[in-house]
Amino acid sequence: MQKVKITEVKTNPNNPRLIKDDKFKKLVKSIKEFPQMLELRPIVVNDDMIVLGGNMRLKACKEAGLKEVPIIKASDLTEEQQKEFIVKDNVGFGEWDWDLLANEWDSVQLEDWGLDAWQNMDDIETSDEFTLPDGDKEPFQQMTFTLADEQAEQIKNAIADIKLTEEYKYCETMGNENSNGNALYLIVMQWAEQRR
After folding, report:
1. Cys-Cys crosslink for 60: which of 13, 27, 154, 179, Cβ 3.0 to 4.6 Å?
2. 93 to each of 73, 82, 90, 114, 132, how far by Cα in Å?
């Protein structure tokens, strides 16, 4: 691992993974609050200093105002292996153990760290009104549903799956920065379209 000037590292135009809106803001915040994590998970580049792994982290580092970033050079990879690395580095293998997360971590903190977590009522302050970051409610609404565990798991999986689609990348958000809300809206709109 070595540290280089952030201007030396080039984003990869073929990066297939995007982090949008509120998740990107959380990544920037995470880098500002815990920069040591970058040294434990440096940006992977090829010999031309083009990112193979960590495009969004690089973008967030620039947004956070960093002048240097830790990198690892993947000099021994063929061009085909570099393409494979780009995709495999962005694949989410495995599943979260939601019971363990619920028992060991605070749901608000997990959400703040970028994990789309449930909202555990013991972890959040409740009131009759909610506010968005700018203090305004219109034209947004917060909705709460009660689901059986199996229903909740299926909905979480559907939301995660639709976030990987092309339709999600370009769906109308109407100004909403909540990625789960936008994903759920797209699922419902696709269902409504099938019913016609």
Report:
1. 27
2. 24, 19, 9, 17, 33
State the Cα–Cα distance between residues 40 and 38, nearest whole angstrom: 5
Residue 36: CB atoms within 10 Å? 7
pLDDT of 136-169, one tens digit each? 556 677 777 787 888 888 888 888 888 888 888 8
Say what the pTM is.
Answer: 0.53
**Sequence letter at residue 55:** N
Q: In what order do the strands lie in the sheet with 2-5?
A: 2-5, 68-73, 43-45, 51-53
